[in-house]
């Protein structure tokens, strides 16, 4: 992709400013309809998922007490991996978005929830909810674009270190939760700018350290110890479960913004952005994954990334419900709804990481000296 | 770090150590998060109760019988309990007077709820609550209780659902220790909550019952008490009912110079002065909302999804108090303005305070 403003054929040039505002109103109406219905069924749903997840996690860990016995290892590891995925995706991510704050249950609230992840919930909420969701796919603002270590857009400058990015990406996938913790800390930038001594940064670093200590103690010391003679096999099982969870969430998240068809935006294009323009950016900056109900649950409904980006705080199971309405809007406004099955989207995202590890081929770029106009308010239809 | 100061005798018990160990097993969750799945009423859990029966009292009132969690400390007749109920998926807290006797051998408690028009929680409890539902509870609270020893002559002046705390006292047997008169108002004989029970008590001579059916005879004027209960000013009186009745009673007893013999329980605050409204920021949560001058900050915050502490929701228990860091709020009952400048932490009752300008609240 290329910043939308530099594309030879601008995919939104056919929309007038009024069109975009009407589109925004139609999306607001979808949101209002969900808000009017939101209630007991959403509360019952998240409670059920939480209960299932806790039961699965505890029983898998119980099975792993006997992990010396290979079938127990396999069953326990698989169960724990699924439990950890559910916990991070459908439960943690969504509760931390405030999707269930409406319930006013202090046990299920974005301000009190802590997740099974090395990045403390409050740091993740800041970098994810406030930065990524606000600046979605804006180059130079949304660090999710390549996490600050990769080049995922033609408009990002190429450096020789990008040659290694397929490898970085793979390592990041394996240890994704640590990658996210580093990213939430803005580790790279803070170190580069010599802010490693700033008290605020140090406090956050300590918080991450504490969280890592607790997580590691639980997964790699306490539970293995409880397994007695199965110490080593349980340790391997927990490591494997974490690895599976990391690879899975990394894949799902890559599918959200990297596959081909997803647009990026230049910094100047969002100055004075209206609500309609913000919506439009979310629509074009995200991609869905098609699949079964089980897939949607295991991705925390991030398979409805477009719907999630439009309405980050609506209960996740509602995304599936409103997807046809959202898609109808894409059709009516002549926009491309990017979606595809998981393997295809993952491959597409990986292909981009590999392709952009090399410098651009010159033909890919139109004349770059034209001013980056605010495309979102251009010609009429 | 080295320290020469000896540790205070803070004894870590075996139980504490086990708990800490259990926490390392369940982190980032707590052991209780798992235990709650199987034993929500166990000792040590947040206080909850399970509804074991719902029985209609009148066409719009019902009694809920609740098995409280193991840590329930009991109550004094006349006190109320706060109930946290999920209505349409949203946790709502309301206060209800306990109508059960305090020493039931089965340890059950009951509350009696009257559905008010458009009332969110009361209608849900009366019409849609199912047996088996778990509700959140708080320990019993309130000082609308009889002294010990019970005064020789007692008047209960009640209307509508205001009979509930009195029923708790009658079930505890006040009438066996005092001369009791009950003056109760309801629209029709059928609308009298606990009608059959009260009439039976009266028939046995346990109490003197004066029923007022307001659809036929109009609202009770306090002046009528002179004929209905000639010695009412000599009695210790407990009054509970709508705002109008209680205000009139307070004036009447004050005018007679015996205000100390009147004890009242209000189910809702008397609101007199809407403020100007303004934007309210919860500084720690980072939430900002526009609140109008008639809405308590408690309600406005809850509507915006904040986790607000609350209690009686009518200005008596101080369960909702939060520090106002700066700004101005108006007390909805008195119209009084409270202001805070940066650096302050003026404690305000959010349930009866509305924004009167931009406010920063420490939450
Ligand atoms: C100490 C205490 C003890 C109480 N004991 C009992 C009890 O034993 N039985 C019982 O039924 N209720 C009792 N209440 C009242 C109860 O707490 C709720 O206020 C009541 O059930 C209404 O709640 P709601 O959610 O149905 O109404 P809401 O949805 O909160 O209010 C709906 C409408 O009714 C008005 N309203 C609110 N409360 C009342 C009220 N009490 N009377 C008339 N209109 C009202 C509101 O202003 C609003 O316009 C008690 C209240 C207190 C403070
Ligand atoms: S909630 Fe009781 S005083 Fe406000």
Automatic annotation (TrEMBL), chain A:
<feature type="transmembrane region" description="Helical">
    <location>
        <begin position="63"/>
        <end position="86"/>
    </location>
</feature>
<keyword id="KW-1133">Transmembrane helix</keyword>
<dbReference type="GO" id="GO:0016020">
    <property type="term" value="C:membrane"/>
</dbReference>
<dbReference type="GO" id="GO:0016717">
    <property type="term" value="F:oxidoreductase activity, acting on paired donors, with oxidation of a pair of donors resulting in the reduction of molecular oxygen to two molecules of water"/>
</dbReference>
<feature type="domain" description="Fatty acid desaturase">
    <location>
        <begin position="72"/>
        <end position="339"/>
    </location>
</feature>
<dbReference type="GO" id="GO:0006629">
    <property type="term" value="P:lipid metabolic process"/>
</dbReference>
<keyword id="KW-0472">Membrane</keyword>
<feature type="compositionally biased region" description="Basic and acidic residues">
    <location>
        <begin position="362"/>
        <end position="372"/>
    </location>
</feature>
<dbReference type="InterPro" id="IPR012171">
    <property type="entry name" value="Fatty_acid_desaturase"/>
</dbReference>
<protein>
    <submittedName>
        <fullName>Acyl-CoA desaturase</fullName>
    </submittedName>
</protein>
<feature type="region of interest" description="Disordered">
    <location>
        <begin position="362"/>
        <end position="381"/>
    </location>
</feature>
<dbReference type="InterPro" id="IPR005804">
    <property type="entry name" value="FA_desaturase_dom"/>
</dbReference>
<keyword id="KW-0812">Transmembrane</keyword>
<dbReference type="Pfam" id="PF00487">
    <property type="entry name" value="FA_desaturase"/>
</dbReference>
From TrEMBL, chain B:
<keyword id="KW-0408">Iron</keyword>
<feature type="domain" description="2Fe-2S ferredoxin-type">
    <location>
        <begin position="278"/>
        <end position="363"/>
    </location>
</feature>
<keyword id="KW-0479">Metal-binding</keyword>
<dbReference type="InterPro" id="IPR050415">
    <property type="entry name" value="MRET"/>
</dbReference>
<dbReference type="InterPro" id="IPR008333">
    <property type="entry name" value="Cbr1-like_FAD-bd_dom"/>
</dbReference>
<keyword id="KW-0001">2Fe-2S</keyword>
<dbReference type="GO" id="GO:0046872">
    <property type="term" value="F:metal ion binding"/>
</dbReference>
<dbReference type="InterPro" id="IPR039261">
    <property type="entry name" value="FNR_nucleotide-bd"/>
</dbReference>
<keyword id="KW-0274">FAD</keyword>
<protein>
    <submittedName>
        <fullName>Stearoyl-CoA 9-desaturase</fullName>
    </submittedName>
</protein>
<keyword id="KW-0285">Flavoprotein</keyword>
<feature type="domain" description="FAD-binding FR-type">
    <location>
        <begin position="44"/>
        <end position="147"/>
    </location>
</feature>
<dbReference type="GO" id="GO:0051537">
    <property type="term" value="F:2 iron, 2 sulfur cluster binding"/>
</dbReference>
<dbReference type="GO" id="GO:0016491">
    <property type="term" value="F:oxidoreductase activity"/>
</dbReference>
<dbReference type="InterPro" id="IPR001041">
    <property type="entry name" value="2Fe-2S_ferredoxin-type"/>
</dbReference>
<dbReference type="Pfam" id="PF00111">
    <property type="entry name" value="Fer2"/>
</dbReference>
<dbReference type="InterPro" id="IPR012675">
    <property type="entry name" value="Beta-grasp_dom_sf"/>
</dbReference>
<keyword id="KW-0560">Oxidoreductase</keyword>
<dbReference type="InterPro" id="IPR001433">
    <property type="entry name" value="OxRdtase_FAD/NAD-bd"/>
</dbReference>
<dbReference type="InterPro" id="IPR036010">
    <property type="entry name" value="2Fe-2S_ferredoxin-like_sf"/>
</dbReference>
<dbReference type="InterPro" id="IPR017927">
    <property type="entry name" value="FAD-bd_FR_type"/>
</dbReference>
<dbReference type="Pfam" id="PF00970">
    <property type="entry name" value="FAD_binding_6"/>
</dbReference>
């Amino acid at each position: 992709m290329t910043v939308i403003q530099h594309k030879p054929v601008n995919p939104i040039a056919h929309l007038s400013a009024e069109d975009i505002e009407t589109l925004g109103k139609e999306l607001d109406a979808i949101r209002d309809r969900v808000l009017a219905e939101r209630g007991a069924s959403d509360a019952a749903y998240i409670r059920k998922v939480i209960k299932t997840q806790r039961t699965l996690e505890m029983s898998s860990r119980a099975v792993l007490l006997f992990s010396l016995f290979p079938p127990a290892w396999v069953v326990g590891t698989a169960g724990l991996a699924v439990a950890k995925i559910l916990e991070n995706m459908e439960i943690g991510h969504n509760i931390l978005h405030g999707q269930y704050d409406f319930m006013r249950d202090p046990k299920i609230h974005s301000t009190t929830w802590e997740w099974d992840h090395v990045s403390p919930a409050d740091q993740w909420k800041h970098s994810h909810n406030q930065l990524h969701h606000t600046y979605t796919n804006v180059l130079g603002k949304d660090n999710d674009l390549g996490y600050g270590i990769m080049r995922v857009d033609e408009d990002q400058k190429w450096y020789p270190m990008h040659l290694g990015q397929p490898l970085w990406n793979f390592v990041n996938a394996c240890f994704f939760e640590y990658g996210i913790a580093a990213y939430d800390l803005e580790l790279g930038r803070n170190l580069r700018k010599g802010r490693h001594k700033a008290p605020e940064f140090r406090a956050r670093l300590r918080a991450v350290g504490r969280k890592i200590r607790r997580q590691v103690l639980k997964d790699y010391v306490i539970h293995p110890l409880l397994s007695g003679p199965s110490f080593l096999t349980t340790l391997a099982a927990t490591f494997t479960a974490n690895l599976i969870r990391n690879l899975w969430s990394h894949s799902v998240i890559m599918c959200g913004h990297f596959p081909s068809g997803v647009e990026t935006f230049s910094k100047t294009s969002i100055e004075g952005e209206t609500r309609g323009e913000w919506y439009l950016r979310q629509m074009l900056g995200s991609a869905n994954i098609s699949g079964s109900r089980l897939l949607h649950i295991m991705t925390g409904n991030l398979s409805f990334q477009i719907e999630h980006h439009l309405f980050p705080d609506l209960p996740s199971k509602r995304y599936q419900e409103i997807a046809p309405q959202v898609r109808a809007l894409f059709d009516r406004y002549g926009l491309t709804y990017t979606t595809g099955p998981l393997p295809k989207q993952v491959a597409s995202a990986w292909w981009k990481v590999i392709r952009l590890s090399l410098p651009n081929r010159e033909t890919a770029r139109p004349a770059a000296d034209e001013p980056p106009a605010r495309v979102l308010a251009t010609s009429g239809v | 770090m080295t320290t020469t100061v000896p540790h205070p005798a803070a004894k870590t018990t075996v139980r504490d150590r086990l708990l800490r160990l259990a926490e390392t097993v369940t982190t980032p969750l707590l052991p209780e998060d798992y235990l709650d799945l199987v034993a929500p009423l166990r000792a040590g859990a947040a206080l909850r109760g399970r509804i074991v029966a719902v029985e209609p009292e009148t066409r719009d009132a019902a009694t809920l019988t609740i098995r409280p969690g193991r840590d329930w400390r009991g109550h004094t007749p006349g006190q109320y309990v706060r109930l946290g109920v999920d209505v349409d998926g949203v946790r709502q807290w309301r206060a209800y007077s306990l109508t059960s006797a305090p020493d039931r051998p089965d340890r059950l408690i009951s509350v009696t709820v009257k559905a008010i028009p458009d009332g969110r929680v009361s209608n849900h409890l009366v019409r849609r609550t199912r047996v088996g539902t778990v509700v959140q509870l708080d320990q019993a609270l309130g000082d609308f209780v009889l002294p010990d020893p019970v005064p020789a002559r007692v008047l209960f002046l009640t209307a509508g659902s205001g009979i509930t705390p009195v029923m708790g006292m009658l079930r505890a047997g006040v009438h066996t220790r005092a001369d009791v008169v009950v003056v109760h108002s309801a629209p029709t004989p059928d609308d009298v909550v606990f009608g059959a029970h009260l009439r039976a008590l009266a028939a046995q001579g346990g109490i003197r019952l004066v029923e007022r059916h307001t659809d036929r005879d109009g609202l009770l004027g306090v002046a009528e008490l002179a004929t209905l209960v000639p010695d009412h000013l000599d009695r210790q009186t407990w009054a509970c009912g709508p705002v109008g009745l209680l205000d009139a009673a307070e004036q009447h007893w004050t005018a007679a110079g015996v205000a100390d013999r009147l004890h009242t329980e209000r189910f809702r605050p008397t609101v007199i002065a809407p403020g100007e409204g303004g934007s309210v920021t919860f500084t720690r949560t980072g939430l900002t909302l526009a609140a109008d001058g008639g809405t308590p900050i408690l309600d406005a915050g809850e509507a915006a999804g904040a986790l607000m502490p609350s209690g009686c929701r009518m200005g008596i228990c101080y369960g909702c108090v939060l520090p106002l860091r700066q700004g101005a709020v108006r007390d909805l009952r008195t119209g009084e303005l409270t202001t805070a400048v940066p650096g302050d932490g003026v404690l305000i009752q959010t349930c009866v305070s509305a924004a009167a300008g931009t406010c920063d609240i420490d939450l």
